[in-house]
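Reposting from the mailing list since nobody answered there.

I have sequence plus structure tokens for a pair of proteins and want to know whether others read the tokens the same way I do. The first protein:
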Amino acid sequence: MAVDQAKIREHIRGILEAIGEDPDREGLRETPDRVARMYSEIFEGIGYTNDEIAAMFNKTFEAPTDRDMVLVKDIEIFSYCEHHMALMYDMKVAVAYIPRERVIGLSKIARIADMVGKRLQLQEKIGSDIAYIMEKATLSPDVAVVIKGKHSCMTARGIKNNTSVTLTTTFRGAFKDDVKLQDRLFRMIEMKPLEQ
């Protein structure tokens, strides 16, 4: 479903009026249209199911026989909290999986994270959705997603705690119960050497 830009323009104009602004003043005249175009871009992921995203980015290649963990880290995304429509920012996503028969193109992992971020949601849901899509796209049940981010619903309003960071993990398959594999993953994310 495409974003209804006409409705957004109408409602943004109403919001401007409701907060005491003049939507016809020079600096705000084009704001409803700008916001409508921006929402079409930043909420693009709402228009796709997780299965559709998996189908969009499922380009895979034959896995090498000596397959081991694949990790793509420091994927920068942003999203919006479904409770306040507040920005979730400075988000870094790490996605790891253990290939079975196929490996996915590395850029597809970043594209999956980006598309999932373009929804109204909780950070926990971002991790769960990325993991689900990775399982579908790679045909591997062994997936981990680690997300670190800031939430403007905590930093800019309410408690106004500017230093708070939220860290979430989603572990599937081998990552779920294997503490050593989890530890190895966290060390790889932080680039710390493994202890001998």
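The second protein, same order (residues first, tokens after):
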Amino acid sequence: MAQLYYRYSTMNAGKSIELIKVAYNYEERGKNVLTLIPAVDDRYGQGVITSRIGVQREATVVNEDTNILELFIRENEKKKIDCVLVDECQFLKKHHVLELVEIVDSFEVPVLAYGLKNDFRNEMFEGSYYMLIYADKIEEIKTICWCGRKATMVARVVDGKIVKQGRQVLIGGNDMYVSLCRKHYNDGRIAPDR
């Protein structure tokens, strides 16, 4: 029975490489995968999923007004889709998540969505909120803070200091964000000496 999976973590936990690995495993067995990425994440170009270790994969871009269910149906008519994979699912809108639910429930196709849970202010993204509500399976991908504790927070860093105000979506990588444990997120220490 197909299910909707939400696999979340902080930054630098390996979400994108995990997605690329799952896609490879399906395709190695002759299965077809529909890979999606929200348009807002254009760090490596439009329609490209890139892990921090450099492995890349092309993906179909999802805009705010994209109907993922209709996109799936079109692609499924061309060739049977065996799995849908979504990177950066925190940037999805409620309607996107409901469309993914419909793919699982009506077409019996598994959907695996990877993303952050909370933003740099420790507030939920819209996509994350609805993934937590609708997902059949919720799995945490763990990574660590500089101190060795489990990282649960994403801190936005400007000029070497944590900032906790500003617009929710500001695309960036290691130059702007760091994963921290709650203690170091709260006390503002982004490294042992800072």
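Reply #1 (J.P.):
I read it the same way you do. The radius of gyration is 17 Å.
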